[in-house]
Write a structure and sequence with these properties.
This protein has 179 residues and is of the alpha+beta class. It has three helices and eight strands. Among the domains are: 68 residues, PH-domain like, CATH 2.30.29; 50 residues.
Length: 179
Amino acid sequence: MGLPGPAPAPAASGTQAVAPASRSSLVTYQVSKSASSQRSPGAITRRPQVRHGLSTDKTTLHVDTEILPIRDVLSYSAAGLSEKDLSTAFATIAIFSGVAALYVFGVVELGWRARSLLEGILFGAIALCAVAELFSARRLTLYTFKIVMKTGATATFVTADHAAALELKSVLDAAVGEI
């Protein structure tokens, strides 16, 4: 006989994003938890080691702990989103160049001590580093596959790996019958 524990939590469903071991892909999937799968607080939960993407024989697609047979794919849609995030660099340039200008103005016009000019130079140098970051920023492309299975279930697979996206698209085209 076990000790009475807390009552199981009600079933919940939602969307989770999981970052796999490789930094080149991100998987998003729908999960629904039953009351029997809930663990008591403080229980140690070990995450199973899983593979993401196509299997080596190209017959299954691994999405977190789910394994989707390619032959059961009814349809799919694919989209790519390419972006270059420059907002943090622009914010850094605006803030640090403004503070640098304030220090320089304080020394030149308001008669602050000359040693305050060093702070202005420091903040100006940080703003120049942010300008250099603008030119070194790289594009990030995410490929999203929304897959509909013959059972009606849907899965969303997102990857940043261009070669893996092309391979998955060719396998899904063959499974759906498109050429």
